[in-house]
Each structure stands twice: as C-alpha cells, then as structure tokens.
Write a structure and sequence with these properties.
The structure holds 2 protein chains of 2 kinds. By secondary structure, chain A is α/β, with parallel strands linked by helices. Chain A has 13 helices and 14 strands. Chain A is 34% helix and 24% strand. Chain B starts with a helix and ends with a helix. Classes of the chains: A alpha/beta, B alpha+beta. Bound molecules: zinc ion.
Amino acid sequence: MAGIAGYGAFIPRRRITTEEIARQWGKDPGTIQRGLMLKEKSVPGFDEDTITISVAAGRAALARAGVSPSRVGAVYIGSESHPYAVKPSGTVVAEALGIGPEVHVADFEFACKAGTEAMFVALALVESGRVDYALAVGADTSQGAPDDALEYSASAGGAAFLFGRDDPLVEVVDTISFTTDTPDFWRREGEFYPRHGGRFTGEPAYFKHVTEATTRILDKTGLKPEDFRFVVFHMPNGKFPLSVGKSLGFTREQIDPGWVVPTMGNTYSGSSPTGLAAVLDVADPDDLILITSFGSGAGSDSFVLRATGLLPQRRGLAPSVRSMLDGPRRYVTYGEYAKYREKIIVND
Amino acid sequence: MPSPRYWREIPSRYRLEATRCGDCGRVSYPPRRICPECRSTDGETIELSHEGRVLTYTVVHVPPDDFLMEAPYALAVVETPEGARMMVQVADCDPASVEAGMMVALEFRLIRREGKGGILCYGYKAVPAYPMGGEAEAELRSKESEVAHA
Ligand SMILES: [Zn+2]
C-alpha cells in the first residue's frame, strides 16, 4: 500500500509574542490571547522563504526515508507565498536536494490548502505507478496586514512528505476532497496583503468545508472518531480546530499532539502538514491518524493514515517539530518584526 | 541581468559539491578541475557534510548595499569534517556570540537578491549547531568546549 516513506518539518527560529503585537496597536493582549488562543508565532528572517523552508523540510524527509534523491520522480511545492510571481519554487528545491533532472516539478496554490493539495497529487502519482517516489511540501511565509486579526497568526514554516510504495512509515488508507467556490479570503494580483470576509471566514468557509470533508471520509471508510488516536485540523488560530474537533466528536487528547498553533502561529500551507509531522513524531505502530486541511476559496482535503512499525525506527533521523518549537529561539520586538517582514519603507 | 556565474555555480552553491583529489586526497571547495596541491586532474565530486566548525570570523557593521538590512552580521570561515573551508554568514544568532571553535550546521538560505526585480540567489549559511535536545545537546556542548580549550 502506498504511503509516506519519509517526513520532515522546518520552523524558523525567530518569534514574536501576541502580547508584543497587541501592544503595538493599543489592544488588550489578554483579550486577544484568549480570543485567538495564540501565545506567539514564528517569524522568518530576510534569508528565509518558502524555498529555504521547503529545502530544510525536504532534506529531513529524504533522511528519514533513506531514499536516494535520484529515485524521486516528482516535486510539488504548495504555498501562497512562492518567492517569485513567475519562476517555480520547485526547481530550486529539487536542485538543492539533488533530485532530477528527470523529475516532474510543479508549484501549487490554494490558500492554506496548497500543502495537502501537493500531497494528494504526489500520492496519486505514486499509486498510479508512474513514479517510485514523489515529494510534496506545504510551506509559507505569509503576511497579515498590520493591525488585522491575521497579523497575530500569519507565521512561517512547513513540512515535507515523501510518498512511496515500498516500506512506508505511514500507510494512506483513504483520501477525500471537498471543494466549493467561496470568497472568504483572497489577494488580488499586485496587492501586498490579503483581504478576508471577516466573520464570513468562519461558518460558511472553515467550518463547513472541514466538517463536510471529515464527515465524508468517516462515512467512506466506515470509521468513527473514537477509532483514531490523533486528529489534525487546519489551524488558522487556536480556537477553530478545537471547536470543529469538538463538534465532530473528537477529544482534546486526540487533537493536542498536532495542535501546534499556539506557539507556531498559522503557517498557512504548512499548518496542518506541520501538525501531522508533530503527530508522526509521537505516533505508535497501528495508530490511526486523521488530517483535514482547509484552504480559503474554499476546500478541504482529508487523509486517513495508519502508522507502521517503521515509523518509530526512522523518526530519530531528523529533528522533531517539538524540538523546533520549544528549542533555541529568538524573540523580536515589533520594530524588528516590521523590518524583517519588510513593512518599513527604505530608500534604494 | 541574472548572473551567469551564479547559474554555473549552482552545484556547489545548492548542494555543497566539492572535489576530492584522487592522488593526494585534498578536498577543494568550490570544485577544481586541477588539484591546487599536487596538480592532479584525477578528482571525484563529493557532497560536503552540512556541518562544520568556525575557524575564524569577523562582524560586519558596514555591509555592501545588498546586505544593508542584515547588519551587523558575522562572517566566518567554516571547516567541514572533509577539510573543505568556506566563507559563510552566520545566521540565527547574536553576531557577538560567534566564536572560533563553535560547531555550526550549514543551512540553505536566501543569500542575496539581485537588485529590486532581479533573481534570488540561494546558498548556505552557518547557524549555531542546534541539537536535537537531550543527550545529543550535552554531547555537543562538551565537544564544543573541548575544541575551545584545545
Ligand atoms: Zn591532489
């Protein structure tokens, strides 16, 4: 059965606290922290972008798989912050990882769902037998407009999954996609910051699509929430995944190991994939895992996964998500953050 | 105009490809067709480890224009376990904390942008060798102090 042969994640080491951002705009930090359930978020340096995060995560995935880069037949990078408007991120990533030149490369975009979108296609290509291995990455260094609710959450990071047929660490039991046209969040060409429909981003967008995809994959597989050891939902803030999880009948014990958002922020295309990587860092053989992403515009992808006996043997070959979230990190002021995120206008 | 030199150097810039001399064993980075040690042309391409040790360093306070927003930053000569040496920026730390003997990891980063609308140039930077935690960290710290006191 096809599955995940290797996985890896990367989270930049700079952080800004919710309190620091709230203070900048004269908001009450406590109210915002409680409302969004966010403590801090990762901040990329000048030298970090979707490409560099994808390379770091991809290297870790190849290391855990123990697969030669020359056997990888496809590289798909899902992001809404590809560094170039025209020129693929995937060519740099493939070349840096020693993959190709006989390789199919594409960049994917679908707001926060581009990562699972890349995973979906990579899996299908492996299942069809067209390639031996396919690498899928979800990574972002997204920006929220200053003083917008998104500024507290938009962060940087990502995860990579190498799909293959032989010796998977995790088997893919089933997948489903649920998509409708819903204008909840967008950015027009040439605009610097995205815009969103405020409260419209909740019920008709996030909750509808995550609920539909999850319910449908449970129906399709005949599984019940209690059959799963872990569940990961897209994490635009701390609250949404907990609310949708509760309404679908999942417990905090199932949600918490992959609920990385309070100290990572929302890494957009990297959000649910990084949550999944955090779950794979702790899962035991035969554990069932459910992941449902969400991308504005809008759609959700669900995957039902089962850990194999190889997972515990391989995960020590690369750093865990927890070690990156809780490990050495540098806190920046709002001023430094504005500089790093190039919100300050300077002369050429 | 994208730099043809940058494109030619992609194997060494993106994958740390180096040459190991088949006669004297010297490792050259970037790769050389003729060994600078023994003039041999019998070299094999190897990929350097993504780790190393700081031999010496300096802190740049007045940088070239492309690096204006990054100053002050540390620039170090790093030696990999294969014996290759390279000059790299040291990122993700206070430049004042960089010292000779420090263990570093080499990470793929955006090095510079060719002006406002030009291409993006990627390569490697050193970062303090952030360990995986626990025993690995303790081991690394003791190795670091051994080197520092050697
Ligand atoms: Zn020689």
